[in-house]
Amino acid sequence: MVRRKIESYGDQPRQFGEWFIPDVERPPLVILVHGGYFRPVWKLDLEEPSAIDLAEHGFGVWSIEYRTYESGWPTTLLDVAAAIDYGLSQAERHGIDASRRALYGHSAGGALALWTVSRRSIPEGAPGRDSQAPTFDLAVMHAPVACLTQASYEHLGSGAVDIFMGGRVEDVPERYAVCDPAQLVPTPGGRLVLLHGDADDAVPISYSEACLAHALAHGVNAELIHLPGQGHYEILDPASQVSGLRRELLAEALLT
């Protein structure tokens, strides 16, 4: 049996998340950050099947919602940081052991999650900077938009990144400099695993390859798992091979 509960972490309509709590004693915590190219049409229900599946496999899940690009930069980033901090602070109240924890993000949600685990390296005074930002035993990113600068140049997502950032790289370079994961140092705390299909036509696998090289250059315990023949959306199906792989990675990090 999985219990579900929606809670707000702020006073805005999209500042909420949903708990998925399994009927086991003190399960570890997994925080989910949904994708959708920062567009308001996409919401946390994208991750509902995954959240239920993970809870049924013994994980306590906090699936977060956030304001998207219609609210202007850096609202989305700050909402994600606040939602994650809230989940970590409130997990114990739901019987979830937040000392064993993982972060997962898909696509644009992967970019947001990567930014989250880089908050310690954000320049002083920039939005989201936190020298004490939380770390995780495992951070798993599936097909993340890991370089916002490159995504802007390549017009990825039909220009979604430019709208999210409030301009192209040449228009607002100071924004890209303080929130593009490719320009920050990730500090996940534990292991960083990138999952990416070589048939992904929404976010090229080269983004994860560059992210891996960047992480390794900064001493991060990172790995990229290539998924032959896989595209961008299989991860949303709990019955898929890549979802099974994600469960295995989480179980190895949090249940053993």
Reading the helices and strands in chain order gives EEEHEHEHEHHHEHEH
* Main pleated sheet: 8 strands, mixed
Helical content band? 25-40%
Class based on secondary structure composition and strand pairing: alpha/beta
Beta-sheet strand percentage? Answer: 15-25%
What does this structure look like?
An eight-stranded mixed beta sheet has the order 1-2-4-3-5-6-7-8, sandwiched between helices. The chain starts with a strand and ends with a helix. β5 (97-106), α3 (108-116) and β6 form a beta-alpha-beta unit. With 256 residues, the protein is α/β, with parallel strands linked by helices. The protein has eight helices and eight strands, in the order βββαβαβαβαααβαβα. The protein is 31% helix and 22% strand.
